[in-house]
Amino acid sequence: MRFPLPWEVNMNKNNVIQAEGLTKMFGDFTAVNAITFEVKKGEIFGFLGANGAGKTTAMKMLIGISTPTSGTAKVAGFDVFTQAEDIKRNIGYMSQKFALYDDLTVKENITFFGGIYGLSRVRIKEKTKELIADLGLEEVANQLVGSLPLGWKQKLSFSVALIHEPKIVFLDEPTGGVDPITRRQFWEMIYRASHQGTTIFVTTHYMDEAEYCDRVSIMVNGKIEALNTPKKLKEQFGVQSMNDVFLKLARG
Amino acid sequence: MGITVSNISKSYKDVKALQNISFDVKPNELFGLIGPDGAGKTTLFRILTTLLIANEGQATVADLDVLKDFKEIRKHVGYMPGRFSLYQDLTIEENLTFFATIFGTTIEENYELIKDIYVQIEPFKDRRAGKLSGGMKQKLALCCALIHKPKVLFLDEPTTGVDPVSRKEFWEMLKRLQQKGITILVSTPYMDEAALCDRIALIQDGKILQIDTPEAIVNQYPKTIYNVSANNMYLLINSLKAYPHQHSVYPFGEFVHYTDTREGFNPEELEQYLEVQNLLNIRIEKTEATIEDSFMELAK
Q1: B136 close to A (CB below 8 A)
Q2: Are B100 and B172 in contact (CB under 8 A)?
Q3: How far is B109 from chain A (nearest CA, A)?
Q4: pLDDT tens digits, one per residue of B244-280
Q5: Which residues have C-beta within 8 Å of that of residue B246, sequence separation ≥ 6?
């Protein structure tokens, strides 16, 4: 009889992310310091931290574009050290900074991203129809994305990030600057995706966005200093909002 | 010494960026323009700082006309644009000296005004602006906007992209500047910052939705809001939206903010309806309106 290897013991089938002691160093500087956490299937997980806390570096490791210095992590069943390419193919990603091509039409963007993720022509056609109907974009389907209001772009780019039906989608500060009604429509889309079993990983430093998550982690100086449901974190710190939780943690 | 805006309109081709905007900012007031991207906030700032000419309407800043007295206005206003627009390849100290020189003054002459803020970045004064963190850039930009001791300060989304700790510090700085007699017009897409202003204008699609103190705006919210929660957020939102008597249903963090169309709304009735939808752990409690609720009701 052989003993199970550590990851076989720890890798729960329901975990879409499993990170242990994940670390990234740049020279002498430890940007991410041995973070350990897991994210479950269908969970909306908030990944918070101040500017410079190590959030972006940690996320880069999880999406397969930066190799960790040490530790272990699996994302969507793939190892961040040895299967980075598989991770890239099997996750969705959306950032506010870059999402869609402004000088392609709505349909062209969908076709382009469908192609990138290896969908067949037939599948792309089906998906395009479905997605445009879902978002009510029939009338602007042949317009350049650059001409659409910010809120529409965001909803479209979220749908495009899900086009290959990934197990997990990473949202990098998704809703900054949009009006409060559109923002809520966006969160309703997130709830729907989560309900259908897609895991949502959101990085943000807007604490009101954190209130929407099932669980949130807060990074301070490269370490995860808190991880729980927003409700329990507020109780733990004896405050009314996630903003106050954050201020207490970051200021010590 | 404040700001007056009367019937200002501005269009870019077919896009109506500002439509007949009017409001006053009192001397020494901290006034907030609250609205999403594309509301017209930056256009208004550019008109008031004499960088853009309105199609219609009049405006004064510190009792000076934005058209006739544009040169004079520029001596008396400080402007911190939304995009970081200092010289990336000059150091902190060089940027500040540069702006002081342009306005015919020196860092020493007005040091008192910027001291609180400058001491926080002074240890890095030989670092190039391009190499600074977001919070430090923001502090430097504020120092540069203040170095000629302006009467009126314009801050266009100063806290966008800044973490909560830096945001809080920034608002504390603004309060201290206000105490020194400066009139401040600040814009933000974050509704929670509205409460920190003396008065606010809610703005969307080039139109002002309402102007008042944050308390008054919230107090004028026309309905009773209920916090509703249950075991499944997605089903809860869908069920509430399908409820025939719903007036508004908005996710709000761990709750949904619900309002009903009827005068004599009985929460128990809603609870029974939600139970039939197979929801569990249902809670319905009255809650206070926020600026965001008011904004959404007005924009509806």
Answers
A1: no
A2: no
A3: 33
A4: 999 999 999 999 999 999 999 999 999 999 999 999 9
A5: B240, B258, B259, B260, B261
**pLDDT higher for A5 or B87?**
B87
Unique residue bearing structure tokens 């969307």: B204
pLDDT at B159: 87
Please tell me the distance from the alpha carbon of residue B10 to that of residue A210, in angstroms, as a whole number. Answer: 37
Decide if A192 and B234 are in contact by the 8 Å CB cutoff: yes
Residue B71 has pLDDT above 60, yes or no: yes
Q: How far is CA A168 from the centre of its chain?
A: 7
The Cα A187–Cα B129 span in angstroms is: 36
Mean pLDDT of B284-290: 97
Q: Which two tokens stand for residue B115?
A: 């001291």
In one letter, which amino acid is A239?
V
Contact B260, B270 (CB under 8 A): yes
Q: B3-219 domain in CATH 3.40.50.300?
A: yes
Chain B 86-105, CB below 8 Å of chain A: which residues? Answer: none
Helix (H) or strand (E) holding A113: helix A106-116
Query: Could you tell me the CA-to-CA distances from B288 to A184, A252, B225, B281 in Å, in that order?
Result: 19, 30, 7, 22
| Helical axes B111-121 vs B134-146, angle rounded to 10° | 170
Q: Which residues pair with A201 in a beta bridge?
A: A45, A170
Q: Between 3.30.70, 3.40.50, 3.40.390, 2.60.40, what CATH number should domain B225-299 receive? A: 3.30.70
Q: Domain ranges for chain B, please list them.
A: 3-219, 225-299
Burial B238-257 (b: 16+ CB within 10 A, else e): bbbeebeeeebbbbbbbbbb
**pLDDT (0 to 100) of residue B9:** 97
Torsion of Cα atoms, A56 then A62 then A67 then A73, to 10°: 130
Nearest by CB to residue B168, choosing from A49, A178, A247, is A247
Share of chain A above pLDDT 70, in %: 93
pLDDT single digits (tens) A84-136: 999 999 999 998 776 799 999 999 999 999 999 999 999 999 999 999 999 99
Query: Which residue from B204, B232, B251 is facing A179, i.e. has the nearest CB?
Result: B204
Q: Are B57 and B34 a contacting pair, CB within 8 Å?
A: no
Quote the pLDDT of residue A230: 95
Q: How far lies B123's CA from each of B118, B120, B126, B222, B289, in Å?
A: 9, 7, 8, 51, 44
- pLDDT of A2 strictly over 80: no
Domains and CATH numbers, chain A: 6-70+84-251 (3.40.50.300)
- Is the Cα torsion angle B271, B274, B276, B278 positive or negative in sign? negative
DSSP three-state, residue A77: coil
Query: What is chain B's mean pLDDT, rounded?
Result: 94
